Amino acid sequence: MPKPIQKLKGMRDILPADQKYFRYVCQTVGDLLEKSGFQRIDTPILEPTKLFERTIGESTAIVEKEMYTFNIKGEESVTLRPEGTASVARAYIEHGMHTWPQPVQLFYIGKMFRHEKPQAGRYREFTQIGFEIFGDSHPLTDATLISLIWQIYEKFGLKDLVLEINSIGCSSCRPKMRKALIEYYKDKLPKLCEDCKRRFKKNPFRLLDCKISKCRRIAEKAPHLIDLLCEECRAHFTQVLEALDELGVPYDLNPKLVRGLDYYNRTTFEIIPAKKINKQQAALGAGGRYDGLIELLGGPPTPAIGFALGVDRVVGELIEKKIEVPEKRKKVQVFVAALGELAKKKSLKIIKELRQLNFSVMSALGKESIKAQLKLADKLEAEYTLIIGEKEARANTVLIRDMLSGVQESVEEEDLIKRLNELIEEKKQLIKENNE
Ligand code: HAM
Question: For residue 217, how far is its CA from the centre of ligand 1 (angstroms)?
Answer without folding.
Answer: 25
